[in-house]
Amino acid sequence: MRAVFVITLCFVFFLVGCNKPSTFTNISVLSQFALIENKEDVHAIVDSSVIPYIYTKVISLRELPVEEKKEKFVEMLLPSILVSQHRLNQKITRVEHIENWLLKHPIPMKSDSVFLSKLFETYNCNEFSELKMRLKPHPASIVLGQAALESGWGSSRFFNEGNNVFGIWSYDAGEDRMQALVGRDSTTIYVRSYSSIEESVKDYFETIARVNAYEEFRQERFTSTNTSELIPLLHRYSEVGNIYTDKLKELIESNNLTKYDSYVINKDYFIEEIIELSLAI
Questions:
Q1: Could you tell me if residue 135 is left (phi over 0), alpha (psi between -120 and 50 degrees) or otherwise beta?
Q2: Count of domains in the chain?
Q3: What is the pLDDT confidence band of residue 128, given thresholds at 50, 70 and 90?
């Protein structure tokens, strides 16, 4: 009888331990949504602490003098890049939180399971290590450089009319998109339209994270932020291969874009929330 009592008591403690609520500290960004009707509507970036302005409407920068065009372009893009990077890093932190929980508890939390399932589906993987590698963002300088190349420093029609910074194509007639003026081999080309610049940047990061062509790039960026080492691994982003990456490297260096790699979101726009996760399933 005593043995049965001890076993029962242990089982009760086991269930209590598994059902103990877990908390996660989530840090979200209080984004400031804005639209641009003229160049004066672009908020200046005065130092390395950036106010997270997310632009839902932009203008073409085609007619501006070259240096002013580049300055306005960076001011339009950088806040969205920093917000996207922050959100990806928060997801990594949450994934690591779940890993640590599972080391001590045999049963995952309900909300953790839902969170992981969505991420594994979005990023086409099923292991923690691979998921974290795919989530890892790369330096802002590379994002800015590719954005500048793909949009002509904010001069493209896709950028102006659809907030499409990177010229990402659309293959789904059910999504918001716009038709390119010129097709390819008698095939009509469509590109995605986005609700904001940040949505375009988010989709760009997901594209880099999901597509097999960037696997080597993802592996390198997981442990390195060295742009000189990372840029050559983007040769499959363009049909011209190494010509593209050479051009990207030159653009980043000649415009000193690496200085933006140390820029951060102004801490006054962070909101810290303690989330109590649901009980274990």
A1: alpha
A2: 1
A3: very high
